[in-house]
Amino acid sequence: MPVLVMKFGGTSVATLDRIRRAAKRVGVEVSKGYDVIVIVSAMSGETNKLVGYVEETSPLFDAREYDAVVASGENVTAGLMALTLQEMDVPARSWQGWQVPVKTTSAHSAARIEDIPTDNIRQKFGEGMKVAVVAGFQGISPEGRITTLGRGGSDTTAVAFAAAFGAERCDIYTDVDGVYTTDPRICEKARKLDRIAFEEMLELASLGAKVLQTRSVELAMRYKVRLRVVSSFEEQSDDAGTLVCAEEDIMESNVVAGVAYSRDEAKMTLVSVADRPGIAAAIFMPLSEAGVNVDMIVQNISEEGRTDMTFSCPTNQVQRAEKALAEAKTRGDINFHDLVADTAVAKISVVGIGMRSHTGVAAKMFKVLSDEGINIKVITTSEIKISVLIDRKYMELAVQALHDAFELEKTG
Ligand code: ADP
Ligand code: ASP
Ligand code: MG
After folding, report:
1. Range of the domain at 344
2. Is the CB of 171 within 6 Å of ligand 1?
3. Which of 40, 211, 264 to mutate to test the pocket of ligand 1 (most atoms within 8 A of CB)?
4. pTM for the full model?
């Protein structure tokens, strides 16, 4: 039997009624002759609630216990989905990550899937089971502890299962009907894309478009998984939604494919550090050891042997960063005058493979922002994207203005 992977995100399983609706969609695919692997997220809001419990209990928590707590949301939906399918006379059972087992690294709260043995589930399919419901987002470490794959990780579970089982397709059911030129929730002119290239989706995801977790796109690209994003609220034909595919499979495209934003950014500046060989290593090694994900970095020109060093990191890592840098200063490894954290910034990025061959995108982006009176604090570029940090209060305005200026509501 051909295998299909169907993943339902938090809003798609938010209530028993929605689980029933999702189960009906699964039933449709079973009736077409597929063996289906259903990957479920926790009910909408559940994971945030569980993270809140952990942070309130222990601010600098043990990540192994964090994982034990936050993985539990998916267990509930996996069982409920299996029960709902059974009520519909569809032979189904649930699996938690460790039961498969989804083998991961031991990087708790950000683990990577290393292996998914398929024999266990295949045997059940052989015995007449039609649907394997698997709790997304979770796995088991070599030490036998429960791990999680980072926020949004059920997408990655889904793609990894599709790769392991050689699935015909991996359908990601969510609360929008595909991948848009930007988040349709903050820009009403956002246009749904029928297709998007892996490289562009990878950039958009890693720059904040949470419709797919970055790692899921990476895996789909590597294992050539046919990855589709579809709405769980509308009736679906087989070509609905957005197909994430190879660049060669896209006929026409704009220079800029989309605009992404990330609200969860902080800008930190070390004021007046001694500018000497090794200073960057002395600053960023302790940050890395403390688990701070540094993103953008800018070093200013130095005056009289001293310089300012600015970097960005997720807002919830500011405390860790401050602690690590204060300790490095106490040890005498670095010497700075002040450490200033600005936690009210956002990152806005434009992405498009067309930028490889078109010049002027950066200049246009800067002009658009300047016309709106928005000050740019930090800039970074790569081959197919340009990112800027701005005041968070201008985030939506910036996304809308860039979407207009690059005419993303029109097809290229
Ligand atoms: P799920 O719970 O189904 O995993 P998520 O909330 O993780 O859903 O992802 C879907 C959300 O991603 C949408 O509701 C939308 O607000 C957001 N989003 C951000 N950027 C985009 C984009 N370019 N295209 C579509 N959705 C986007
Ligand atoms: N429930 C997890 C989260 O909210 C994983 C997921 O939904 O993909 O991050
Ligand atoms: Mg998600």
Report:
1. 259-405
2. no
3. 211
4. 0.94
179 lines ligand 1 (CB under 6 A): yes
Asked if residue 412 has pLDDT above 70, the reply is no
Supply the DSSP symbol for 303: B
Coil/strand/helix, residue 275: coil
Alpha-carbon span 149 to 74, nearest angstrom = 12
Specify the pairing of strand 138-140 against strand 146-148.
antiparallel
Which ligand neighbours the alpha carbon of 135 most closely? Answer: 2
Centre of ligand 1 to C-alpha 177, Å, is 10
Which atom number of ligand 1 is nearest to the Cα of residue 152? Answer: 7
> Closest-lying ligand to the alpha carbon of 39?
2
Q: Which amino acid is at 109?
A: S
Q: How many domains does the chain have?
A: 2
Exposed, middle or buried: residue 87 (CB in 10 Å: 0-12, 13-18, 19+)? exposed
pLDDT digits (tens, 9 = 90+) for 345-380: 999 999 999 999 999 999 999 999 999 999 999 999
The candidate with the shortest Cα–Cα distance to 263, out of 315, 317, 187, is: 315
Pick the last residue of a domain from 141, 175, 209: 175
Q: Are residues 391 and 264 in the same domain?
A: yes
The whole-angstrom separation of Cα 149 and Cα 107 is 9
d(CA 14, ligand 2 centre) in Å: 12
- Domain assignment present for 230: no
Q: Is residue 249 part of a domain?
A: no
